[in-house]
Amino acid sequence: MTQLDDITDYMQKSLSADKTGHSVDHIDRVLALSNKILQDYPQADTFIVRAASLLHDVYDDKLFHSLAQAQAAKENMILFLQSISVTKHQINAIITIIDNMSWSKSIAGNVKPLDLNGQIVQDADRLEAIGAIAITRAITYGAVKDRILYDPNIPPRIAQTKAQYRQDDSTTINHFYEKLLLIKDRLNTKTAQKIAVSRHQFMLDFLDQFKSEWHLTK
User: Fold this and answer.
1) Model's pTM, two decimal places?
2) What is the pLDDT of residue 215?
């Protein structure tokens, strides 16, 4: 087995029970998107990109009940990477990407700029947040968090901090305006920007259809 095979097994065990839309199939699609973008950027480090793609949700704090649990998951991941002889330099590169790629952390602007490897992983993860599958993921996550699906009397809000972004007092449909529809213009690579066009339009069409059906019954 290669190191990436071992990392894949570790990811699958870590996320096998996820019900929020951050499960193994999500990781598989992020990896596939990273691989697609890598084809246009041969100067990138394929191992770093693929490893970070596979591991980027393993210690995501929104998937844990406490920050302490997320930190423990991060420390366990580091120990695992050391156990399969991933170098210190590679581990630091992977962690830097994971710690600075998320939308919530970028809101306040307190993240390190990503190098090309990180930009590819970030783009792949953000592409996974727009389009047809992304719509189902948003609805799934909202249901798990007991969010209201839609209320025209609750306007979208633009969060200024990570804490505000993570609050569950908005609606699932508002999430499209608060994040998902903003993604297209915040991608790094030309490859991702091209992929985003049709996915973005699909979400706009969905929202138009959703609202027309919703208001027809009112």
Assistant:
1) 0.90
2) 85
